[in-house]
Amino acid sequence: MNTNITDVFFDLDHTLWDFEKNSALAFETIFKMQNLAIDMQEFLHFYVPINKAYWEKYRKDEITQKELRFGRLKDTFDLLKFAIEDDLITFLSEEYIFYLPKYNHLFEGTIEILDYLKPKYNLHIITNGFAEIQGNKLNNSYISKYFKTITNSEMAGVKKPNSLIFDYALDLAKAKKETSVMIGDCIEADVQGALDAGLDAILFSESNVQVADNIKQVNHLLELKKYL
């Protein structure tokens, strides 16, 4: 690992902010409010991979934000064979975005590792998430104070893994590629994207996915102490 690191860039969802846990709680809330008899375990069984696939399309600019929000729900309800009007799906998609940042479970070790890193490095966020809710997630989970800059894809005009978003973030942070590292859960968007842009990178993967030998990986956030 480069010992001259000065700036550490984090992804937010699935890296610090426990997206799946918070997402499930948001859906549970809005389904209950609308009196929808939906088995949450069955719903999530279909929704989680569908959502991931939609985000991959969104990253590649194959769909719009609106199509992502509606389509991932529509496809899930179709697989569940749950009869529901499109207007209600649209309403649920909006309610979901409203309630999602109200649940703010973080991955184990988040606060401890940020407390450890903060005195040593400049900390930043680079996220493909929507600007309107990413700020609320950071504020509501009380971790916004740790970060000097926050870059999202709407600001940069491109999404990870496009190298231009990393260039934008580096410029905003007044940081250099040679002394910066990106930490995130997505091998394509966060790790390979950062490496291609000239930064160092570390993959965060609770499930210890198989990656190339040259990829640095941690399974728990506190393992970052090995590198930083």
How is this fold's topology laid out?
Layout (H helix, E strand, L loop, with lengths): L6 E4 L8 H15 L6 H20 L5 H16 L5 H14 L10 H8 L4 E6 L3 H10 L8 E4 H4 L6 H11 L6 E5 L2 H11 L2 E5 L11 E3 L10
Parallel strand pairs: 1-2, 1-4, 2-3, 4-5, 5-6
Helix pairs in contact: 1-4, 2-3, 3-4, 8-9
How would you describe what is shown here?
The chain is an alpha/beta fold. It folds into two domains: 132 residues, HAD superfamily/HAD-like (Rossmann fold); 84 residues, DNA polymerase, domain 1 (Orthogonal Bundle), CATH 1.10.150.240. 48% of the residues lie in helices and 12% in strands. It is built from nine helices and six strands. Strands 3-2-1-4-5-6 form a six-stranded parallel beta sheet. Helix 1 crosses helix 4, helix 2 packs antiparallel against helix 3 and helix 8 packs across helix 9. The longest helix is centred in the N-terminal third of the chain and has 20 residues. The N and C termini lie close together (8 Å). The model has no long low-confidence stretch (mean pLDDT 95).
List keywords for this structure.
228 residues; alpha/beta; DNA polymerase, domain 1; 2 domains; six-stranded parallel β-sheet; 9 helices; elongated
